[in-house]
Amino acid sequence: MICVTLDMQCSLCGSDRFHLPTQPGESPHVRCANCTAVKCQTLALESTLMAYRREHTPPHHRAA
Ligand SMILES: [Zn+2]
After folding, report:
1. Is the pLDDT at 5 greater than 80, yes or no?
2. What does DSSP say about strands 2-5 and 17-20: parallel, antiparallel, or unpaired?
3. Superkingdom of this entry's organism (predicted)?
4. CA of 16 to the centre of ligand 1 (A)
5. Which of 15, 47, 50, 53 lies in disulfide reach of 34, CB 3.0 to 4.6 Å?
6. DSSP at 11
7. For the chain, how big is the Rg over CA atoms in Å?
8. Which residues touch 56 (CB under 8 Å, ≥6 apart)?
């Protein structure tokens, strides 16, 4: 899991820092780094996650 600053804010505390899952076994949810509220319904965030995974996932790990 990594902690990143995204161009969005937590609906509960207003933080723009979020924890993103980076491992296949981790929860697929994105959580606010400040209050740990789950933020997973945002379309922009989905795009951010997909872009991140494209950039950081080795080709031989993409099959799953
Ligand atoms: Zn929060």
Report:
1. yes
2. antiparallel
3. Bacteria
4. 8
5. 15
6. T
7. 12
8. 22
Q: What angle do CA 34, 9, 5 make, to 5 degrees?
A: 70
DSSP string computed for 23-43: STTS-S--EETTT--B----H
Distance 9 CA to ligand 1 centre (A): 8
**Structure tokens, 23:** 């491992």
- Environment class of 32 (CB within 10 Å of its CB; exposed 0-12, middle 13-18, buried 19+): buried
Per-residue pLDDT tens for 27-56? 777 888 999 877 654 556 667 667 777 777
Q: How far apart are CA 15 and CA 61, in angstroms?
A: 32
> Ligand 1 center to residue 56 CA distance, Å?
25
Q: Model-level pTM?
A: 0.56
Task: Give the pLDDT score at 64.
Answer: 58
